[in-house]
Specification:
The chain has helices at 17-21, 32-53, 62-78, 127-139, 170-189, and strands spanning 6-9, 12-16, 81-91, 96-105, 113-118, 148-153, 162-167. With 190 residues, the protein is α/β, with parallel strands linked by helices. Strands 1, 2, 3, 4, 5, 6 and 7 form a seven-stranded mixed beta sheet that branches.
């Protein structure tokens, strides 16, 4: 049986980035039903975007449709080249994993960029950690990326999404890696 927040891959247990950074968010004041509904919307949106990017007909509930329209407005305006979408990466050294939303080559740029889609009402303090760890995991596999990650905070009314850019900085990345090391140290003590 797989433990929540972990992925078994080639007989080894990897922690998801979300598991590593979950202690940095406090959802205790949010109604669990609201959280569940937002997770379902996020899943439907990601499935719809995946289908759209793979030239398939996206099918989703109406509650995710406006977020999808927000994404397609950005996509059509920017016209990036899709390199990968919804691919899982593993870092064997730190035993962590991530499944990124997309890697795109933006016109007039030399290196591709990770793009993450969000349906949250506001920016989370964990996003910068997630960005750094995703970038670390993916580049550890030899993928060349721009030294930034783009987050698309999609609009619930279908408007243009807000783009949030996180510059990858070595000192902050070192802090993120120390969180990973501390996570595994604490896990051994359990």
């Amino acid at each position: 049986m797989e433990e929540e927040g972990f992925i078994l891959h080639e007989g080894k247990k990897y922690a998801r980035v979300s598991k590593i950074i979950q202690h940095l968010s406090d959802f205790s004041r949010i109604d669990p039903e609201v959280l569940k509904r937002k997770q379902e919307i996020g899943t439907e949106l990601h499935d719809g975007v995946f289908d759209f990017l793979n030239d398939e007909m996206p099918i989703m509930a109406e509650r995710a449709l406006k977020y999808f329209e927000s994404f397609t407005k950005w996509f059509k305006a920017i016209n990036p080249k899709v390199l990968e979408t919804e691919k899982r990466y593993f870092n064997q050294e730190k035993m962590i994993t991530c499944r990124m939303d997309g890697i795109f080559l933006i016109p007039f740029e030399n290196l591709p960029v990770i793009v993450d889609y969000k349906t949250a009402l506001m920016e989370s303090p964990t996003w910068i950690y997630q960005a750094h760890l995703y970038h670390y995991i993916i580049t550890s596999q030899g993928v060349q990326l721009a030294d930034r990650v783009l987050y698309l905070k999609l609009d619930s009314k279908g408007g243009i999404p807000k783009t949030i850019t996180y510059q990858i900085e070595k000192p902050f990345l070192s802090h993120c890696i120390s969180l990973v090391d501390q996570f595994w140290t604490n896990k051994k003590l359990d």
